[in-house]
């Protein structure tokens, strides 16, 4: 028998698998496909201060080994998240809940964090300073170490919950941002969000997504995500949730060897809603094949 | 209940220009609501492709696929015997009961949008509704399902944009020229056609819309459209929307 449990900065998880924000709705959507209590934890869809419809359609462009999304943080707003979405999820789900919050300025983050503080069902706050799909805010907050640190400080000040800051790969040196967040008090980091990408329909000569650009994710970004996790894990002492391009149990282990304490699975859920379940089921077999008894302290030699 | 199932491709037959009928064998229990769709995984393509259920009998699923790009081209070139992974039972489907009993239903399709009308027609007929089918194509060589719909008990009117078969013009022209009447309508086809149909027809009705999808499974919100009743996911609360819900 292998041991799948991990420790995410003090929070015990039955296994390291967490569906990434924006790829599992508010939990109930994914629960229609399988009992989500098998997950290590769940990261809910990005939520902002006010409700948002998101970007115009089309919002999805297929790529080789990935996709571009420009959903643009469609969400019902923080109040509805707390009053409706989380209670509905908690009614059927017993594992840790990660609330992913986003905003256009430091105050937006502080506001959401403060409101979330009163919700005992939220176990971790994930501050998304890396959304490439909204203008003025979103990713802009995560590309400058000073601003990222400011957001971190504001969220930490407003909340006593563990705070993970979700970083964008669209920067020259991700470790500079990571260190700034750590110094500002972040309890952990989620690495990485999507890469800014674009596709053009050569028949109509128009960008495929209405917003012109969007976030690129999927298997193609795995090596980039792995590299970023490795760099950040070496540069910081706080735990890292690895994210980007993971779709197999082998990739989960690779991500953990690079330094991740837990692993988020995003786009894979879109292609196969059962992806996380499949990975969790495959993990023991892959671990046995590799002679691994547990997933703690996996390292590269 | 939506879930993933494996089907075996048993036949790929041409039915019109660049349009193919795919027959698949597998477990179809609980899947047979007209207007629902499946997400088909295509070898070598990252995302699955949304395709409407054209017909569904115990153990046999029929899809009609028009080649539009690389994914659909790959799909229709697969050899019989190839296993296909399908997310099944997706979307809300058409509301048969919306046509009052013993009343007239008009089912309107444009191009490959004709595909879901066959199962719809069969179910309306089983429920004792009269059915008139109005099918719009660009040209004679594009026509498909005309005879199958007749065999299923519909009065079929065809319109072609170039006049090579049936009435010349669009489905809306055919409905006007033939003074077709109905109590309720169902439509599926390109957006401009759906808009014209909704504007021209006074009676209540519903239409099946198309949108680019990420998951097709209700989890990514990549397909959310604005409706008069708030934002709705095309793959989950749709793809069929009541005429008055649509925002053009
Ligand atoms: C609910 C629904 C039901 C459908 N039913 C049928 C059907 O029964 N028969 C049929 O032939 N076609 C149907 N379509 C359209 C079909 O999904 C597209 O033609 C197909 O996805 C194109 O794929 P491609 O790889 O050939 O084209 P590409 O342009 O190479 O595809 C690139 C990407 O864009 C997406 N895409 C391109 N065009 C469309 C479109 N019109 N709608 C949605 N996504 C698109 C593809 O899925 C893929 O992700 C349906 C679409 C929807 C939304
Ligand atoms: C459709 C979609 C929506 C997303 N929405 C969010 C979001 O709201 N908040 C966020 O922090 N990340 C969001 N992401 C990014 C993912 O959580 C993840 O960081 C990224 O996709 C990389 O992982 P992957 O390659 O496994 O998908 C979204 C990704 C996709 C594909
Ligand atoms: S396509 Fe993912 S929610 Fe509709």
Give a verbal description of the structure:
- The complex is a heterodimer of chains A (301) and B (248).
- Chain A is of the alpha/beta class.
- Helix content of chain A is 32%, strand content 20%.
- Chain A has one domain (6-55, 71-198, 216-290): Aldolase class I (TIM Barrel), CATH 3.20.20.
- Chain A has 9 helices and 16 strands.
- In chain A, the strands form 4 sheets. An 8-stranded parallel sheet of chain A has the order 3-16-15-10-9-8-7-4. Chain A has a 4-stranded antiparallel sheet with strand order 5-6-14-11, with no helix packed on it.
- The radius of gyration of chain A is 18 Å and the shape is globular.
- The relative contact order of chain A is 0.17.
- With 248 residues, chain B is α/β, with parallel strands linked by helices.
- Chain B has 5 helices and 16 strands.
- The longest helix of chain B has 10 residues, at 117-126.
- Classes of the chains: A alpha/beta (301), B alpha/beta (248).
- At the A-B interface, strand 5, strand 6 and helix 8 of A face strand 14 of B.
Average predicted local confidence, pLDDT of chain A? 96
User: Strand-residue fraction of chain B?
Assistant: 35-45%
Tally the beta strands of chain B: 16
- Classify the oligomer: heterodimer
Major sheet strand order of chain A: 3-16-15-10-9-8-7-4
How would a textbook summarize the main sheet of chain A? 8 strands, parallel
The helix tally of chain B amounts to 5
Which structural class should the secondary elements of chain A be placed in?
alpha/beta
CATH topology title of chain A = TIM Barrel
Protein chains sharing the most extensive interface? A-B, 34 and 26 residues
Please state the average pLDDT score of chain B.
96
Please give the domain count of chain B.
Answer: 2
| The CATH H-level homologous superfamily of the largest domain in chain B | Nucleotide-binding domain of ferredoxin-NADP reductase (FNR) module
**Poorly predicted regions of chain A:** none
Radius of gyration of chain B: 17 Å
Arrangement of strands in the largest sheet of chain B? 4-3-7-1-2-6-5
């Amino acid at each position: 028998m292998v041991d799948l449990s991990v420790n995410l900065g003090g929070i015990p998880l039955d296994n390291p698998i967490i569906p990434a924000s924006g790829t599992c709705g508010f939990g109930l959507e994914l629960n229609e496909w399988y009992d989500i209590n098998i997950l290590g934890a769940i990261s809910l869809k990005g939520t902002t201060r006010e409700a948002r419809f998101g970007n115009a359609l089309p919002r999805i462009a297929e790529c080789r080994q990935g996709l571009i999304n420009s959903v643009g943080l469609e969400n019902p707003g923080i109040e509805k998240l707390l009053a409706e979405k989380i209670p509905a999820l908690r009614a059927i789900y017993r594992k840790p809940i990660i609330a992913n919050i986003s905003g256009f300025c430091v105050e937006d983050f502080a506001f959401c964090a403060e409101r979330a503080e009163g919700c005992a069902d939220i176990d971790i706050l994930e501050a998304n300073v890396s959304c490439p799909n909204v203008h003025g805010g979103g990713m802009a907050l995560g590309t400058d170490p000073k601003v990222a640190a400011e957001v971190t400080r504001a969220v930490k000040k407003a909340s006593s919950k563990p705070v993970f800051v979700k970083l964008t790969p669209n920067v020259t040196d991700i470790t500079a941002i990571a260190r700034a967040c750590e110094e500002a008090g972040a309890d952990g980091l989620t690495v990485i969000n999507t890469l800014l990408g674009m596709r053009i329909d050569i028949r109509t000569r128009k960008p495929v997504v209405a917003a012109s650009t969007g976030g690129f994710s999927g298997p193609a970004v795995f090596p980039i995500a792995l590299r970023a996790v490795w760099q950040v894990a070496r540069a910081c002492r706080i735990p890292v949730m690895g994210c980007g391009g993971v779709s197999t149990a082998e990739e989960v282990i690779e991500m953990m060897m690079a330094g991740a304490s837990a692993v988020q699975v995003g786009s894979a859920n879109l292609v196969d809603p059962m992806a996380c379940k499949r990975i969790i089921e495959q993990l023991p077999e892959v671990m046995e094949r590799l002679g691994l008894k547990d997933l703690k302290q996996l390292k590269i030699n | 209940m939506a879930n993933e199932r494996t089907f075996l491709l048993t036949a790929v037959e041409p039915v019109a220009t660049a349009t193919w009928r795919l027959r698949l064998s597998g477990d179809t229990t609980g899947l047979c609501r007209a207007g629902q769709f499946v997400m088909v995984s295509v070898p070598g393509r990252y995302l699955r492709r949304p395709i409407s259920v054209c017909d569904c009998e115990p153990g046999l699923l029929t899809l009609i696929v028009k080649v539009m790009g690389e994914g659909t081209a790959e799909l229709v070139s697969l050899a019989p015997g190839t296993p296909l992974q399908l997310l099944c039972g997706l979307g809300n489907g058409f509301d048969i009961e919306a046509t009052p009993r013993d009343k007239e239903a008009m089912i309107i399709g444009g191009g490959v949008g004709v595909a879901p009308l066959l199962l719809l027609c069969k179910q309306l007929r089983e429920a004792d509704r009269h059915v008139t089918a109005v099918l719009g194509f660009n040209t004679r060589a594009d026509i498909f399902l005309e005879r199958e719909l007749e065999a299923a008990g519909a009065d079929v009117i065809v319109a072609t944009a170039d006049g090579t078969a049936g009435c010349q013009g669009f489905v809306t022209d055919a409905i006007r020229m033939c003074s077709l009447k109905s109590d309720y309508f169902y439509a599926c086809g390109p957006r401009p056609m759906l808009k014209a149909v909704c504007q021209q027809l006074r009676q209540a009705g519903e239409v099946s819309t198309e949108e680019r999808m990420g998951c097709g499974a209700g989890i990514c919100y990549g397909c959310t459209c604005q409706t008069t009743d708030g934002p709705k996911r095309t793959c989950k609360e749709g793809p069929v929307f009541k005429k008055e819900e649509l925002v053009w």
